[in-house]
Automatic annotation (TrEMBL):
SUPFAM superfamilies: AhpD-like. PANTHER family: CMD DOMAIN-CONTAINING PROTEIN, SI:CH211-175M2.5. NCBIfam families: ahpD_dom. InterPro entries: AhpD-like, AhpD_core, CMD-like. The lineage of its organism: Bacteria, Pseudomonadati, Bacteroidota, Flavobacteriia, Flavobacteriales. GO terms for molecular function: peroxiredoxin activity. This is Carboxymuconolactone decarboxylase family protein. Residues 43-85 form the Carboxymuconolactone decarboxylase-like domain.
């Protein structure tokens, strides 16, 4: 059972209503996570702004989705695993094997694998990575800016993982469950 109420977009008011209208126009729906975030327009707007900014970054949508899966598996967030598996497969055209490997921090491409390993390391070490951890991802071909974007993607996904695990958000995508606890 959910612990935080998801707002009905048709009954929302003020800034949350405006944000819901924008989401509806872009996605054709307002996912439960965003409906629940809408209880605080500041929370929803902050999430949308960082997500939008990262979408314009150098890493691209494909790597962003793979990082989201690696982080969601680390934090056992079934809502985010479900959402990003669906988005990755249906909207970004990532095959299911690649999606599953990302959850473990693996990829056939060594450069992508390095980013996913770094993302998992950030979560495991709670951001207190070593100089060697940073050098390893940089040696795989990531600039200082790209490393910063990986950190930002991890932070955004930790936020959504914690939010959904706290809210116990009702999953409105095909359900995918964490293998780790």
């Amino acid at each position: 059972m959910t612990r935080l109420q998801a707002l009905d977009p048709n009954e929302a008011t003020g800034r949350s209503k405006e944000l819901f209208e924008g989401i509806q126009g872009k996605l054709g729906m307002v996912p439960n996570m965003m409906r629940t975030m809408g209880n605080s327009s500041a929370v929803l707007e902050g999430y949308l702004n960082l997500s939008d900014a990262l979408g314009k970054g150098t890493l691209g949508g494909r790597l962003g989705e793979l990082i989201a899966l690696a982080v969601a598996e680390s934090n056992a967030c079934n809502y985010c695993l479900s959402a990003h598996s669906f988005i990755g497969e249906k909207l970004v055209s990532i095959d299911t094997d690649t999606l599953h490997m990302a959850r473990e921090g693996r990829n056939k491409d060594p450069k992508i694998a390095a980013a996913l390993t770094f993302a998992k390391t950030l979560v495991e070490k709670r951001g207190r990575v070593s100089a060697d951890d940073v050098e390893t991802v940089k040696n795989a071909g990531y600039t200082d800016g790209a490393v910063g974007e990986i950190v930002a993607h991890v932070a955004l996904n930790i936020f959504t993982n914690y939010f959904n695990n706290t809210a116990n958000t009702a999953i409105d995508f095909p359900v995918v469950e964490a293998e780790t606890v």
